[in-house]
Amino acid sequence: MTEPTGRRERKKAQTRRSLADAALELFLDRGYDQVGVKDVAEAADVSVTTLFKHFPSKEALVFDQDDDIEAALVAAVRERAPGQSIPRALCEHLLRAQAPAADPRFGEFRRMVEETPALRDHAHRMWMRHEAAVARAVAEEVGAPEGDVTCAALARFALEARDLVGRNPDPTRVAGEVFALLEHGWAAAHPDG
After folding, report:
1. What is the pLDDT of residues 115-146, one digit of tens each?
2. Domain total for the chain?
3. Interatomic CA distance for residues 157 and 52, integer angstroms
4. How far is CA 128 from CA 5, 55, 87, 109, in A?
5. What are the helix (H) ranges across the chain?
């Protein structure tokens, strides 16, 4: 995420970060359903009104890096290695994004999301919001017109693959199989992309 430059922007970013950190700590320690937004606001030493100025919902407190995720997906398409297909670049990005983070509590976080229906649904909706940006990047890369259905389909199916990959005990194998299917169809529609 780009660092805010002005004092006011830095202060807002710090408040947002404090809220997200407090929420995550409370959710992991007590369980998502046992923590209210008032608890999070108190832990971050802000009002509930301030919390809602930064996050539109309780679920949003868990997922505070939406802009970074979209930028990384678009970069996977635009900054892929020479000769690498777009489906292969998206597959590699998906596998990197699914890999366990260095944070020792990442596994707890992932379990919390998967075991909490509201979070699981919110995570899926958030992830799929990037579909249009990925489709635009794909279209730009292959010189297709905006709104090209093949670019939109690739973006949708590549993003939807995350659930199949993430819920399987062998994510690398599953990603390979899913993206081989996408690669085959994409190559038929766009042999140079």
Report:
1. 999 999 988 998 899 999 999 999 999 999 98
2. 2
3. 33
4. 30, 19, 17, 20
5. 7-30, 37-44, 48-54, 66-78, 86-98, 106-115, 117-128, 131-142, 149-166, 171-189
Contact call for residues 179 and 144 (beta carbons, < 8 A): no
- Residues 108, 177, single domain; the answer is yes
**Domain end marker among 18, 37, 56:** 56
**Residue numbers of the domain that contains 20:** 7-56
Q: Is residue 104's pLDDT more than 80?
A: no
DSSP string, 89-145: HHHHHHHHHHSPPSSTTHHHHHHHHHH-HHHHHHHHHHHHTTHHHHHHHHHHHHTPP
Report d(CA 25, CA 175) in Å as an integer.
31
Phi, psi of 57 (to 5 degrees): -155, 170
User: CA 16 to CA 112: how far, in whole Å?
Assistant: 21
**Tokens 């971050």, located at residue:** 44
